[in-house]
Amino acid sequence: MRDEMLKDIISEENLVYKKTDLMTDNVLSYCPGCGHGTAHRIIMEVVDEMGLQEETIGIAPVGCSVLAYEFMNIDMQQAAHGRAPALATGIKKTWPEKFVFTYQGDGDLAAIGTAETLHACNRGENILIVFINNGIYGMTGGQMAPTTLSGMKTSTTPFGRDTALMGNPLKITELVAELPGTQFVTRQAVHTPAAVRKAKKAIKKSIELQRSGNSGTTFVEIVSNCNSGWKLPPVQANKWMVENMFPFYPLGDIKVNGELVK
Amino acid sequence: MGELKLMKGNEAIAEAAIRAGVDAYFGYPITPQSEVIEYLSSQKPEERTGMVLLQAESEVASINMVYGAAGSGKKVMTTSSSPGISLMQEGLSYIAGAELPCVVANVVRGGPGLGTIQPSQADYFQATKGGGHGDYKLIVLAPASVQEMADFIPLAFDLAFKYRNPALILSDGMIGQMMEKVELFDQVPRRTEEEIKKTCPWATTGKPKTRERNIITSLYLDPGTQEQHNYKLQKKYRKMEEDEIRYEKIECDDAEYLFVAYGSSARIAQKAIQLGRKKGMKIGLLRPITLYPFPVPQIREMIPRLKGILSVEMSAGQMIEDVRLAVGDKIPAEHFGRLGGIIHSPTEILEALEQKIIGG
Amino acid sequence: MAKVKGAVIVDTERCKGCEVCIDACPTDVLAMSKEVNSKGYHYSFMANPDACIGCANCAIVCPDGVITVYKKKLDQ
Question: For residue B300, what are the domain limits?
Fold first, then answer.
């Protein structure tokens, strides 16, 4: 009886959600529960929904998402560590009609690539920067990132980040929001269905702004988990993120239409 | 006959870039080559041809902007001088690994470190042996005149696109700053986007339904795949060594002694030849135009008629290693050079020949 | 009155067993299987299919995009 009912429901006309074809069939190289996969998917969903596959050029960073081009079914370039905004500048300046975005982690964007990030934003390059912030270097095994919280334990701060020695966690998103070149700056997450929907809206808004030729950089931070680096099971990692990351990195729009949100 | 102008070498690079139909120039000022970006800025290239001109925040950013645009099939270049070129080595390694065509000009100054702003040829190793990490080569062209500064821009792009490999124009502060008469080639139109998509089917120009996605990367995590990629690169370099050696021979027919010198040193060596020939010494010059690929067979072919070779360069002895690899121990091959930004005089070159080769 | 009835299909071979979908399900449909897939992961499955309303929350938060969701209005 139950099987028959399921058979009745599971048919093409009743489909409500399916992975977009703009994600390839390659198995994601990310750890179980990692937010990267969701972040990849929502970008590709928006590109798909807006019919922009042929107009899109993405840049993969160095970090866990170094292989992003294996998963997104679009033309992509892989950048040296931190240099994605420079690549994006080179592409967007010479192909101004294309939708160009970078996908970068916190080490890539806010440590080694700080200069490229700030100057691309300051020039107001009409690109989208997607910034995944999990407060840790995931790929190299969980070392301190520029965004590691004060007191947070990582493999290079095993007794907690000592800000007197190692500096303070860098709120680079607030920093780029101060620059006249950015037009839309927001901080999102992908740990709950509601958060994913909001983050997707922010991506869509950014792409629409870029497509409208509205000059200025759009910057979407996604605060995400690192289960392996944080040494927590995925669901607990998300809980830890809500309790520890969000108070320091509060979600919401930081700059809209070129104006800081009060 | 093309338009004649009196120009600095650096200006000739810039004017040639516009005329060659280059799509974008990304650069960062550094002495002794800032005239390149200054001249381009004065020319409003965006109006002349639609060429993009951007002063980047660093040489690191410049070369990576080049990477991005080159990866999307555009004809793109940057220029710098020694310390700036050192900063670009990371990007150049990636560009070579990802097999992207682009042109970089190094107007060399004395080093190491911040060094001096005077001309030098001490970046030869960096230019011809790869320069950054990994097994790769740049195509290296060495202009010896302002005319060649202009002419080597389209040549460098032709070679870069032919081999999908970065090409380096290795000049120096003397050629960059000196003024000479130049005959400029006519304007070449920039390629249309359709032409780019057709001629660069590998480029990231946006994925249509009709092809697989294009990926520009130098990452091959699987060592077997990485080795195959390296073999592919090596095969390309062997092909360059077969087909792309360029050189000039001056007064070589009866020469018993040979100067090997490139760029500025080749100009001065020519005067030394004149002085020597007045004294009855039969000296010739082999001027490598491509430093990589190096004219090894051309040097070898001359060995039976020679008594000795003097490699003349403004360095402590870098090209001499390639000369010796070509010569072996068949005849004496020595180095003479001034360091740190000092240009040798013809007299001291001749004296070096007399002391190190003829007297030695 | 029409009743909404949902169902999900989990690509069990690609599921990494992170349990984020279980946490996101408002009607406690999903659970982890006792069996493992060929990578040794326990995978998500509909333990309580009658409760599924086809809201797609599970699929939306699934990092690996392994969940496909169907929904149908059933006549009572």
Answer: 247-358
